[in-house]
Design goal:
It is a single-pass type I membrane protein. Interacts with SHTN1; the interaction occurs in axonal growth cones. Interacts with isoform 2 of BSG. It is found in: Cell membrane; Cell projection, Growth cone. By secondary structure, the protein is mainly beta. The protein folds into ten domains: 99 residues, Immunoglobulin-like; 90 residues, Immunoglobulins (Immunoglobulin-like, Sandwich), CATH 2.60.40.10; 94 residues, Immunoglobulin-like, CATH 2.60.40; 84 residues, Immunoglobulins (Immunoglobulin-like); 92 residues, Immunoglobulin-like; 81 residues, Immunoglobulins (Immunoglobulin-like, Sandwich), CATH 2.60.40; 87 residues, Sandwich (Immunoglobulin-like), CATH 2.60.40; 89 residues, Sandwich (Immunoglobulin-like), CATH 2.60.40; and more. Strands 2, 5, 6, 9, 10 and 11 form a six-stranded mixed β-sheet that branches. Strands 12, 14, 17, 18 and 19 form a five-stranded mixed β-sheet that branches. Strand 25 and strand 26 form a beta hairpin.
Length: 1167
């Protein structure tokens, strides 16, 4: 049960009314917002205290929105401010912003005062804060004559600065004549009032240029005091002394500071030696996160002061002669701050609603209500309105009673002013969810079908499936307040068409969406544990199934990271192969099967071991440990001993001890601890309320052994939880809720029966008391009715039947974001070229974001082309820009087109309203290539070409550029001729061309921006007019192909003959010498001998000392040994003779040969 303070009947009524009106909100749909009337809302205004630079024009901001667009008026010092009477005062068009032009020498003091802006339309009046305009001032230092200061060594000294009072106050610093800062230390330092304090002076302090400077930040001017001269006398020993405070002078002082401001306290002491200063807070600690010690510990600064910082602070000054302390009593007051600022209210006629205005402060703020800028007691009476202190209650509201209400919360230290309108609307239902959306979900997963509606009164929503015959109801469905339909466990039978129907007393609207339930992705054959020897290959298989309509992707990871970039890793559709495995490949490999809706994964371990040194050594997993025994039982501990099994040629590296919890998870074994392989005993630390059984596994380089037999059961007693849930977070899913989530404790962490969670929360710096609720068997809790996007402190504590867990620590979370309430303004488009534009906008105000601004979206689409024949609309495109951007580029636009554009801001909840749509035109660009280009007619001295206009004209075609030139047999290009043709021409005939000549043609279209890409074509004028018809490509005729093949074969044969003759013989010089000598051993070649060369060998025997030719034989005539008997005869590597026949060079032999000397020459001779 929630721990809440008891509220009275009024609070109960307000809570009830809050629930009644919570569903009626105006969705941030731009089209809808354009149609609905809306009272004015202030969107931007100048700060309450506005100090202006006297050298610049005064600009007082006041921006507002509403429908109709509001008009603006101003008051000054409580009286109507007629801007028409002062020609120097202008109001910006469409805005309430005032500009006072003082460039002509007017004094800005004349415009000082208290200003307030009002924005009016027919539905009400919104007012701004009271804006106090003051001119910044930087007065001159008063003239004074400063006498030199003479001090004895060791004395204390104060150099007074006393700067002139400026607006805002100046920043003080001390420098010398060379504009160098004077060194400061624990002994010499500057106080908060700007004076320079010496705890004790030393001779080195003597100088004549102690100068105090005052910098006035608003005007950036610096003024200086007259230099101060200090002379330190060192004519007698300095007497040491105990510390005495110079600042503050009394023993006790007090200080008041406002909540949220900066608290600064200082203590400066004299003494010799120089005292050390320290600080404490009585009965409490100084806040470490917000406190800092400055000026050598003499100043204590606390940022963002809260009520907890009130109390007594003490500063201590100490040296070896004694110590002294000073007490500062700090009180913290507070200007008003919001607990719950009033929010806009939209009601239908006859409905009820409330506006609350809750503020805190010290002293407590008083609440004053206004309506349309007038005190509510002076406004026309409205019987439907009642004021209850900080709450306005509306009942039975009537059409026409829309108004803007102001809440003013004030006390001695300031005020808050907030506008909230009441808008009375009567609107029939509208379904804002896009029609025919297809939702896809995995079987057994929840499905959420949206039905966002608007209407006034709030429409009721009903859902139907497939037909309107029966309304959906029952426990299988959850109907959310925002109209969404949730199905907890989606099944194939839930697939189909769903219709949501919205009704109120003004009408009915409906929308259709579709649900498709898909089969889950599952890994059927996961990868298995592998042990592989180094330099071997390994294969992991991973087979999965998925819904056939979804596209799967398989991903492999190693140790939860991407696979190494190594070609040894090969990924196929259902397997991973690693070749030539190394030690670095060992690890955990995971296959992940992904679809667009879900995924499944499985992992396996790869262990790499050394290859066995000899085949006789066999490495195996260790033997099973045995003889488990439990000794030395304690409340949360026990001693376990065992006997290890056989190592199997691989030393045991470690033992893994696992446990089974028979009370909570019987049959499931968990890892408990590991011990080195040299130990056989372990002292086990246990958790309460567990029925333990233990087993042991041994590990060597090959892998784990089989588990041992379980030990006897050991039971621990229950106890309170030792820990609290982790991962505690607070976030919002709706604009008015806070979802608190945590990671629940495991049964092992529960420590006992009856586990529950105490969930606690309170608004940060707003609420002192914690609100709490106890829940069980869940890991989240939703807090409803929260303000939008405010910080909360959140805690979750575990407790069971034996008591609570430790005190939890608080975490900070934020309630839900709401859609941004304002659109970016001042949208401007700058067209840079025919395909690129730049868009600029003004950022939305921080207040209108209502969350964390994530950026801006620019939605743009092509509405039409500027061509009459082409009005094709383009798809909407979106560019996203970071939140600090106020401009961006729109690339890849189509030339000569009309685009529309709108800009939105978005946060974590979604997009805000769109800016007013802007249209812009893209200029002409260069056209695309002509659609076709061909030769349509060929003659002896003329060619006719045809072409088509480009598909992408990108502007108005101004004509075509036609070029041509000749191409000779060496592909050299001739003189380029160019013609300009009109845009309506699609063919052209060239006359007086050379016959039987190849021409190359070019054509490109052009617009006013230039010529587009060029198309080319080639053609040959004919040799004879008879060849014109029919036009046949000779290269495709059968007789031509056969003729060319025969010629190629003949050339190949001749080349081979020439090559063989050159390498093997023929009538080369050796043969001529043999003929000349008339060797009787050599017989002439027979005419009918068809062998190439002079010799044949019927037995196919190679010559002595020769290499076998490439044909494998050397042929000769009837003599078997005409050359063999010649002892001095040798052969070259190509078979030619050397020795007595080596007198002629190869060059001579080449000249005497009657055959062509090379295949190239042979080819030339044939040609």
């Amino acid at each position: 049960m929630m721990d809440r303070p008891k509220d009275g009947p009024l609070a109960l009524l307000l809570l009830l009314l809050g629930h009644m009106i919570s569903a009626l909100e105006v969705p941030l749909d731009p089209k809808l917002l354009e149609e609905l009337p809306q009272p004015p809302t202030i969107t931007h205004q100048s700060p309450k205290d506005y100090i202006v630079d006297p050298r610049e024009n005064i600009v007082i901001h006041c921006e507002a929105k509403g429908k109709p667009h509001p008009s603006f008026s101003w008051t000054r010092n409580g009286m109507h401010f007629d801007i028409d009477k002062d020609p120097k005062v202008l109001m910006r068009p469409g805005s309430g912003t005032l500009v006072m032009d003082i460039s002509g020498g007017e004094r800005s003091e004349a415009y000082e005062g208290i200003y307030q802006c009002s924005a009016h339309n027919e539905l009400g009046t919104a007012v701004s804060n009271s804006i106090v305009i003051r001119q910044s001032r930087s007065p001159l230092w008063s003239k004074e004559r400063i006498s030199p200061i003479i001090a004895q060594k060791g004395q204390s000294l104060i150099l007074h600065c006393r700067p002139p009072a400026g607006l805002p106050p100046p920043i003080i610093f001390w420098m010398d004549n060379n504009f160098q800062r004077l060194p400061q230390s624990r002994r010499v330092s500057q106080a908060l009032n700007g004076d320079l304090y010496f705890s004790n002076v030393q001779p080195e302090d003597s100088r004549s240029d102690y100068i105090c400077y005052a910098r006035f930040p608003h005007t950036q001017t610096i003024q200086q005091k007259q230099p101060i001269s200090v002379r330190v006398l060192d004519n007698k020993p300095a007497e040491e002394r105990a510390p005495v405070f110079m600042v503050p002078s009394e023993s006790v002082s007090s200080k008041m500071v406002l909540r949220g401001e900066v608290l600064e306290m200082e203590c400066v002491a004299d003494g010799l030696p120089t005292p050390a200063v320290s600080w404490v807070k009585r009965n409490s600690e100084i806040p470490s996160g917000r406190a800092s010690f400055l000026n050598f510990n003499k100043t204590l600064r606390i940022m963002d002061v809260s009520e907890a910082d009130a109390g007594e602070y003490r500063c201590f000054a100490k040296n070896r002669h004694g110590s002294v302390h000073h007490s500062i009593r700090v009180t913290v007051n507070a200007a008003p701050y919001w607990i719950s600022a009033p929010r806009n209210l939209v009601l239908a006629p006859k409905e009820m609603g409330i506006i609350t205005c809750r503020a805190a402060g010290h002293p407590k703020p008083s609440i004053r209500w206004l309506v349309n800028g007038l005190p509510i007691e002076d406004a026309p009476k409205d019987p439907s309105r009642r004021v209850e202190e900080d709450t306005l209650i509306f009942s039975e509201v009537q059409t026409g009673s829309s108004a803007v209400y102001q809440c003013n919360a004030s006390n001695l230290y300031g005020y808050l002013l907030s506008n909230a309108f009441v808008n009375i609307l009567a609107e029939p239902p509208r379904v804002l969810t896009l029609p025919n959306i297809i939702y896809q979900v995995i079987r057994n997963k929840p499905a959420l079908l949206e039905c966002v509606v608007f209407g006034s009164p709030v429409p009721t929503i009903t859902w139907f499936k497939d037909s309107r015959s029966s309304m959906l109801e029952g426990n299988a469905y959850v109907f959310h307040e925002n109209g969404a339909l949730e199905i907890h466990m989606s099944q194939p039978s839930n697939s189909g068409k769903y219709t949501c129907v919205a009704r109120n007393n003004l009408g009915i609207s409906e929308n259709h969406v579709y649900l498709e339930v898909k089969e889950p992705t599952r890994i059927l054959r996961p990868p298995e544990y592998q042990v592989v020897q180094r330099n071997r290959d390994v294969v992991f298989e991973c087979k999965a199934k998925h819904d056939p309509s979804l596209v799967p992707t398989m991903t492999w990871l190693k140790d939860d990271r991407e696979l190494p970039d190594d070609e040894r890793f090969r990924v196929d559709s259902d397997r991973l192969t690693i070749t030539d495995v190394t030690e670095s490949d060992a690890g955990t490999y995971t296959c992940i099967m992904n679809t667009t809706l879900d995924q499944d994964s499985a992992s396996a371990q790869l262990t790499v071991v050394e290859a066995p040194p000899t085949p006789t050594v066999i490495y195996e997993q260790p033997g099973v440990p045995t003889d488990l025994e439990l000794t030395d039982p304690g409340a949360r501990s026990v001693q376990l001993t065992w006997t290890p099994g056989d190592e199997h040629n691989s030393p045991i590296k470690k033992f893994l001890i696992q446990y089974e919890d028979a009370l909570h998870q019987s049959g499931v074994w968990h890892n408990l601890t590991e011990v080195p392989g040299t130990k056989t005993t372990a002292h086990l630390k246990l958790s309460p309320y567990v029925h333990y059984s233990f087993r042991v596994l041994a590990l060597n380089d090959v892998g784990f052994s089989h588990p041992s037999m379980p030990s006897r059961q050991f039971r621990t007693s229950p106890a309170a939880p030792d820990e609290n849930p982790t991962e505690v977070k607070g976030h919002g899913t709706e604009h008015n809720n806070l979802v608190i989530t945590w990671k629940p404790l495991t049964p092992l962490q529960a420590n006992g029966p009856g586990l529950q969670y105490k969930v606690m929360w309170r608004q940060l710096d707003m609420e002192k008391d914690w609100t709490s609720v106890s829940v069980a068997n869940v890991s989240k809790f939703v807090v409803s009715g929260t303000p939008t996007f405010v910080p909360y402190e959140v805690m979750v504590q575990a407790l069971n039947d034996y008591g609570p867990g430790p005190k939890p620590s608080a975490v900070i979370g934020y309630s839900g974001e709401d859609f941004p309430s304002a659109a970016p303004g001042n949208v401007r488009i700058l067209v840079l070229n025919s395909t690129l534009a730049e868009v600029h906008w003004s950022p939305v105000s921080l207040e209108s974001v209502r969350g964390r601004l994530q950026g801006y979206k620019v939605h743009y689409s092509r509405e039409r082309s500027l061509h009459r024949h082409n009005s094709h609309q383009g798809k909407q495109r979106t560019e996203i820009f970071s939140p600090n951007k106020t401009s961006g580029m729109l690339p890849d636009l189509l030339p000569y087109s009309v685009y529309s554009l709108r800009v939105t801001a978005f946060n974590g909840r979604g997009e805000g309203p769109s800016s007013v749509p802007q249209r812009f035109e893209m200029p002409e660009g260069v056209p695309g290539t002509p659609s076709f280009f061909k030769v349509s007619a060929i003659d002896l001295d003329s060619l006719t070409l045809e072409w088509g206009p480009p598909h992408e004209r990108n502007g108005r075609l101004s004509g075509y550029t036609f070029k041509y030139q000749t191409v000779n047999s060496k592909n050299d290009l001739g003189l380029l001729e160019e013609l300009d043709l009109p845009s309506n021409q699609s063919s052209f005939t060239l006359h007086n061309l050379s016959h039987s000549t190849r021409y190359k043609f070019y054509i490109s279209a052009r617009t006013q921006r230039g010529s587009g890409p060029t198309l080319t074509e080639e053609a040959v004028t004919i040799l004879d007019r008879a060849m014109v018809s029919p036009q046949v490509d000779i290269a495709t005729q059968g007789w031509f192909i056969g003729l060319m093949s025969a010629i190629a074969l003949l050339i190949l044969i001749l080349l081979i003959i020439c090559f063989i003759k050159r390498n093997k013989g023929g009538k080369y010089p050796v043969k001529e010498k043999e003929d000349a000598h008339g060797d009787p051993e050599i017989q002439p070649m027979k005419e009918d001998d068809l062998t190439f060369g002079e010799y044949s060998d019927e037995d196919h025997k190679p010559l002595k000392g020769s290499r076998t030719p490439s044909s494998g034989t050397v042929k000769r005539d009837g003599s078997d040994d005409s050359l063999v008997d010649s002892g001095d005869t040798q052969f070259n590597e190509d078979g030619s003779f050397i020795g007595q026949y080596s007198g002629r060079s190869d060059r001579d032999a080449t000249h005497d040969s009657s055959e062509p000397p090379s295949p190239v020459n042979a080819m030339n001779s044939i040609v």
